[in-house]
Design a protein that fits this description.
Elements lengths: L9 H12 L3 H14 L4 E7 L5 E6 L6 H6 L27 H7 L2 E7 L6 E7 L2 E8 L4 E7 L6 H5 L4 H18 L4 E6 L2 E6 L4 H9 L7 E7 L3 E8 L11 E5 L2 E3 L2 H9 L13 E7 L4 E2 L10 E2 L2 H18 L14 H5 L17 H36 L22 H10 E4 L3 E6 L2 E6 H19 L4 E11 L2 H9 L1 H7 L2 E6 L2 E8 L7 H15 L6 H13 L9 H11 L15 E5 H7 L2
């Protein structure tokens, strides 16, 4: 038989390797910007067109390359970062595998212009699908200018799997944020379709955070700093009250390299125990500096995974640093973390302690009488205080049992539309409907009872209403007398533009008036004035939270707005509002389940109830 195993051609091997390194346009942005960082550049410009599908261009003022180095950079496993095996355990550069440019050139049309400072002429190289089309000397600026055009032009199947421009643009923004945060001392510029998105001037990390995410982040940053002989942790964490339901603003950097690490995330979250609601995530940016000999970054081609030789030690340092940061900033009770003392000793010094059981034999009869009267007055006050406190605690417990599972905002949609019912219907309902802790409704049926979750019921009602408006563009609008300007960060702004058509269908009238800024000219007719900004921000947060689900954009928007608009547990409803909610629920398409599949009510038959009592 003839031999069947053969060596693949370089062009096919490079395309296979590109499948791991180049997953989408954002992967190209990451690799090219990391190369610019490694070149020593302090100015990096990113230019993107058509969400990176048509053009990704990175310009830097780094060291540049010689003619030979420029040609060699497109060969697989050609790198200037390592020379021997031991170098793998002392890596401080962003790249080292020598696969990025070869993989990119295998699936795109690439042009590179590069020149070193001491060279009179630079080098121009043009490559298409791993084939060199041109290699010549030219005049150009010091540094490297690398253009990637028509990504996946020779792999149409890969190109067809790319998402919409808005989605791909969000991934590009994520990569840009990570690199810009990891090197706040460097200058960055970002242009999308000839529109300036960012112009970042080198400076402090806090300034870079505000420049990327918005001025309101000034209020929520808390310094986190801890240093040990083994590891150093520095950066900022967010205050608990600013925690969000969506991920995406949590950053770990190890030796300035962005990484994902669930174990370290749990370490930081442990400091927020009992400070934030379950399912919410605080903002944090932490830089971990450690000797490269203690880590292994050669785990995955994207280099976002990392292994530590002592993860428990890193866990302990991060948890302690975050706990101390929260305590020092009076977010948790301020304790002396430097010494191990008793809280009682910190609150009451020995010299100020009074022993009320001491023998007062030295006091005069009058002093003893006065002391007895004061003690009685104190005891009466204490009893009254304890009674009031117990009642207050009972109210707190009752309220806490009705904490909402999702962040909501106030609007008219939180008030059930009052409809006219015949008195006989109301009388029938009033005999059988009971509100439990302003969260559940108990409804008597012929064969038993129905237990309804009010919030989930309202969510189903609103979802059907919003889906109808989006599908039919039937939302009514009310014009604002004075348009409201709202500014978003770049990622949220791009997301809002992606949802513009559906949002208009709901009744919003929006217009772009500046960089990442929109004007709200009209709102849906059933929303209250003054809630416009919170509604849009809440909608975006919930939309990002739902993005992991495999659902369409229209359904995601309807789900998100319904989730954020549903009535809160603990909010009292009138009898008519309760009756209307029940009627509207059973008029929906699927009254027994929420859009995300949660049960809205439970039926307890008389047989089940009887069985509970034996």
């Amino acid at each position: 038989m003839k031999d069947i195993i053969q060596l693949l051609p370089d062009s096919i091997a490079n395309q296979i390797a590109a499948g791991e390194v180049v997953q989408r346009p954002a992967s190209v942005v990451k690799e090219l910007m990391e190369n610019a960082i490694d070149s020593g550049a302090d100015y990096i410009q990113l230019i993107v067109k058509d969400a990176g599908k048509s053009l990704i261009q990175v310009i830097d003022n780094g060291s540049g390359m010689s003619e030979t180095d420029a040609r060699m950079s497109f060969e697989r496993h050609a790198t200037s970062k390592i020379r021997k095996t031991e170098d793998l355990f002392s890596i401080r550069t962003m790249g080292f595998r020598g696969e990025a440019l070869a993989s990119i050139a295998a699936v795109a049309q690439v042009e590179m212009r590069t020149r070193r400072k001491d060279d009179e002429l630079g080098t121009l190289i043009k490559i298409e699908g791993s084939d060199i089309k041109s290699h010549e000397s030219i005049t150009c600026q010091v540094g490297t200018n690398l253009c990637v055009k028509n990504l996946f032009f020779n792999v149409p199947a890969r190109r067809n799997f790319l998402k919409s421009n808005a989605v791909e643009m969000r991934h590009i923004l994520d990569e840009f944020h990570r690199i810009a945060l990891s090197y706040p001392e460097k200058n960055f510029e970002f242009f999308n379709n000839d529109l300036e998105i960012y112009r970042l001037v080198g400076g402090k990390l806090s300034h870079r955070i505000v420049a990327l995410f918005g001025k309101h982040y000034k209020e929520q940053l808390t310094t986190c700093d801890e240093e040990t002989p083994f590891v150093k942790v520095r950066g900022y964490i967010g205050k608990p009250e600013f925690a969000k339901k969506s991920r995406g603003e949590q950053f770990f950097f190890v030796n300035n390299r962005y990484i994902r690490h669930n174990y370290l995330h749990y370490a930081l979250m442990s400091a927020y125990d009992n400070l934030i609601h379950e399912g919410t995530f605080p903002f944090y940016i932490l830089f971990i500096e450690i000797d490269p000999i203690h880590i292994d970054i050669n785990v995955h081609p994207t280099k976002t995974e990392i292994k530590f030789d002592d993860e428990r030690a890193i866990y302990a340092v991060i948890a302690a640093a975050a706990t101390m940061a929260l305590g020092i900033n009076n977010i948790t009770p301020s304790l002396d973390f430097e010494s191990n003392i008793k809280i009682s000793d910190a609150m009451f010094s020995q010299t100020n302690k009074k022993n009320y059981n001491t023998d007062f034999s030295n006091e005069t009869p009058r002093e003893k009488s006065n002391l007895k009267n004061w003690n009685k007055m104190y005891q009466d006050f204490q009893d009254a205080f304890l009674n009031e406190r117990d009642q207050h605690n009972a109210n707190i417990i009752e309220t806490e049992t009705a904490q909402p599972q999702e962040i909501t905002f106030g609007s008219k949609v939180n008030s059930i539309q009052k409809e006219t019912f015949e008195s006989e219907n109301i009388n029938d309902y009033s005999k059988t409907v009971l509100s439990l802790y302003n969260r559940y409704l108990i409804l008597q049926t012929r064969g038993g009872m129905l237990l309804i979750d009010r919030q989930l019921a309202h969510e189903r009602v609103l979802y059907d209403r919003f889906m109808d408006r989006i599908t039919n563009h039937s939302g009514t609008s009310q014009q604002l007398l004075f348009p409201l300007a709202v500014q978003f960060n770049a990622a949220d702004f791009e997301l809002l533009m992606e949802m513009e058509e559906e949002i208009n269908g709901l009744g919003f009238i929006l217009s772009v008036i500046g960089k990442h800024t929109i004007a709200i000219n009209g709102i849906p007719g059933d929303l209250l004035n003054g809630t416009e900004k919170s509604i849009l921000e809440g909608l975006i947060e919930q939309y990002k939270w739902n993005s992991n689900l495999q659902i369409g954009r229209q359904e995601n928007i309807a789900r998100s707005l319904a989730k954020r608009s549903a009535i809160k547990p603990g909010l009292a409803l009138s009898e008519i509002e309760t009756y209307v909610l029940i009627e509207q629920l059973f008029a929906t398409s699927r009254p027994n389940f929420t859009p995300d599949g949660k049960s809205i009510f439970i039926i307890l038959s008389m047989d089940k109830i009887s069985a509970m009592f034996g």
